[in-house]
Design a protein that fits this description.
Blueprint lengths: L7 H10 L4 H19 L2 E4 L1 H16 L11 E5 L27 H8 L3 E6 L35 H8 L5 E6 L5 H7 L2 E4 L19 E6 L2 H11 L10 H9 L10 E5 L8 H16 L3 E5 L5 H25 L7 H9 L5 H21 L5 E5 L22 H5 L3 E9 L5 E8 L4 H15 L10
Parallel strand pairs: 2-3, 2-4, 7-8, 7-9
Antiparallel strand pairs: 1-3, 4-6, 5-6, 5-10, 9-11, 10-11
Length: 462
C-alpha cells in the first residue's frame, strides 16, 4: 500500500482526484495482505468477494455523482470478536472453532458499511480479548512489524488490528478496549488508538469479556483518521454529542487545533519504573505541550496508578470466568494456558470482595470527576516500556498498568506515538480525558502529532 493510501485522508484524496478507484484500492489491499499476512499473522479471514463488490458499488455511485460517505472506499479490518455477516466469530479461541457464521453484521460494522467503508476481513485477537501482550498460545501471535527480525509483543488484545494498520495492510481497523486493548497495540506498534467512553458505541454482536468495562474503538495511522472513524462509530443523536461534529470534522480534515490555555495534568506517581527511553519521550511530550501553550501541571494522586487500577484486573477475571469459565474448567481445556489461568483466577474471588471493588470503583469515578473540573486532560505514557521480545514476556504480569485505570474510572483516552528508541521501537503517550471528552483528546493529539512530525520507526515506519 503506497503512502497516500495508508491513511483515510490520503485515500479520500485519491478517490476524489481519480488517482485510484475504490476497486483498485481494494485489490491493492487484498494483494498486500495475501503477500505479507503469512509472516505478520494479522488477519484470520478475508472477505474478498464482498469487498470487491462493495468497492465497485462505491465506484458506481461516484460515477453517478452521488455524495459518498465519509469512509467511502476505505478498507477496514475488524477484530474477530465482532460479528461480520457470513463469517464465524472465533474470538481467537479453539473453543469456538465450530462457531456458525454470523447471520448479520454487528451494529458497529453496519455503521462502517453505511459510511462507505469496505470491510476487508477479520483480525487476530487474544483469546476472548483477555490479555494485554497480544500473544495467543493456541492460534498464533501476530508479528509486531516494527522488528521483523525478532518476535516482539504486538500488544493486545487487539493484536491483529494493531499489526494490520502498522504494517500498512489496511489504513484502519476496529479493536476493543477493556483494560487497554486498543491502546496497548497502538503503543507497541506505533500507531494511534482511541479508547472510547463506555456505553457510547453499541457493543451488540461483540463477544463480551467484562461488559461493564468493554468498549469499541479505532486503530489508525493518524489522529485525523481516528477522528473520522470515531465520528462514524459514535451515534450522532446522543445528546452529549452536541457541538462535537464541527470539532471532529476539523480534526479529521487536518485543520490545526489550538491547545493554548488547555490545562494538562502530568501524573507523577505512576507506581511503575519507566524505561529510560519512555521517560525521555514523556519529558519531551510535556515540553511540547508547554511550547504549544498548554498549562502543564505535575500532580500526585492519592494512590499510584498501578494501585488504583489493580481492582480492574479482578473485575476482568470475575466476568471472564462468569461468561467463559466453563471452557477453563473443561479437561482437557482448549484454552491457552495463560488465558485459562486468568479466567480461573476469577472463580475464587468472593462476593464480598466484588462488592468492595464496585464500591471502590464508584469512589474513584467521583474522584476523577472532581479532578477533571481542574484539568482538561491528563498526560501519561501508555506503557512503561517499548515492546518486549515475546520470549521475555511474563504472562502473569499485565502491560496495562497505566491503561486499566481509564476503564476502571469510565474515562476516555487516546494513545499516539510520540517517540522511539534508537533502534526504532515506538513509544506511545496517553492523553486521558473525562468520559465523552474524545474531541478534546483528539484535538490535543492532533496538535502534538503536527508538532512531532514524522517519526523514524522500525521496519514499517513512515
Amino acid at each position: 500500500m503506497n503512502d497516500q493510501l495508508s491513511t483515510l485522508a490520503g485515500l479520500r484524496s485519491a478517490l476524489e482526484t481519480g488517482a485510484a478507484s475504490a476497486e483498485e484500492i481494494a485489490e491493492q489491499t487484498l494483494a498486500r495482505i495475501s503477500r505479507d499476512n503469512a509472516k505478520l499473522h494479522a488477519f484470520v479471514a478475508l472477505d474478498a468477494d464482498r469487498a470487491l463488490a462493495d468497492a465497485r458499488h462505491v465506484d458506481a455511485l461516484r460515477r453517478l455523482g452521488v455524495r459518498l460517505g465519509p469512509l467511502a472506499g476505505a478498507p477496514i479490518g475488524v477484530k474477530d470478536i465482532i460479528d461480520v455477516a457470513g463469517h464465524p466469530t472465533h474470538a481467537g479461541s479453539l473453543t469456538r472453532a465450530d462457531a456458525p457464521a454470523a447471520a448479520r453484521d454487528a451494529p458497529v460494522v453496519q455503521r462502517l458499511r453505511a459510511a462507505g467503508a469496505i470491510v476487508i476481513g477479520k483480525t487476530h485477537t487474544v483469546e476472548y480479548a483477555f490479555g494485554g501482550w497480544g500473544t495467543n498460545a493456541t492460534v498464533g501471535t501476530p508479528h509486531n512489524p516494527r522488528d521483523m527480525s525478532r518476535a516482539r509483543a504486538p500488544g493486545g488484545s487487539s493484536s491483529g488490528s494493531g499489526v494490520a494498520v502498522a504494517a500498512g495492510l489496511c489504513p484502519a481497523a476496529l479493536g476493543s478496549d477493556t483494560g487497554g486493548s486498543v491502546r496497548l497495540p497502538a503503543s507497541f506498534c506505533g500507531i494511534v488508538g482511541l479508547k472510547t467512553t463506555w456505553g457510547l458505541i453499541d457493543k451488540s454482536g461483540v463477544v463480551p469479556l467484562t461488559p461493564m468495562l468493554d468498549t469499541i474503538g479505532p486503530l489508525t495511522n493518524s489522529v485525523a483518521d481516528a477522528a473520522a472513524l470515531f465520528g462514524v462509530l459514535a451515534p450522532a443523536q446522543d445528546e452529549r454529542r452536541a457541538g462535537w461534529t464541527k470539532r471532529l470534522d476539523a480534526v479529521a480534515r487536518g485543520e490545526g487545533s489550538s491547545i493554548s490555555g488547555m490545562r494538562i495534568g502530568v501524573i507523577a506517581n505512576l507506581g511503575v519504573d519507566l524505561h529510560d527511553e519512555t521517560a525521555r519521550v514523556s519529558r519531551e511530550t510535556r515540553a511540547r505541550l508547554q511550547s504549544l501553550g498548554a498549562l502543564v501541571t505535575e500532580i500526585k494522586l492519592p494512590q499510584t496508578l498501578r494501585d488504583l487500577a489493580a481492582p480492574c484486573g479482578e473485575l476482568l477475571a470475575i466476568d471472564a470466568y462468569r461468561l467463559h469459565g466453563h471452557f477453563a474448567e473443561a479437561e482437557p481445556s482448549r484454552l491457552g494456558a495463560p488465558v485459562r489461568a486468568r479466567m480461573l483466577a476469577g472463580r475464587d474471588i468472593p462476593a464480598h470482595r466484588l462488592m468492595a471493588v464496585l464500591d471502590d470503583r464508584a469512589e474513584k469515578k467521583r474522584d476523577f470527576a472532581l479532578l477533571f473540573e481542574k484539568f482538561d486532560a491528563l498526560l501519561i505514557p501508555t506503557t512503561p516500556s517499548p515492546a518486549p521480545l515475546v520470549a521475555d514476556i511474563d504472562e502473569t504480569v499485565s502491560p496495562g498498568l497505566l491503561t486499566r485505570f481509564v476503564n476502571y474510572a469510565d474515562l476516555a483516552a487516546l494513545s499516539l506515538p510520540m517517540g522511539a528508541t534508537p533502534d526504532g521501537l515506538p513509544i506511545g503517550m496517553q492523553i486521558v480525558v473525562a468520559g465523552y471528552g474524545e474531541p478534546t483528546a483528539l484535538e490535543i493529539g492532533a496538535a502534538l502529532e503536527a508538532d512531532r512530525g514524522t517519526l523514524r520507526l522500525g521496519a514499517a515506519g513512515r
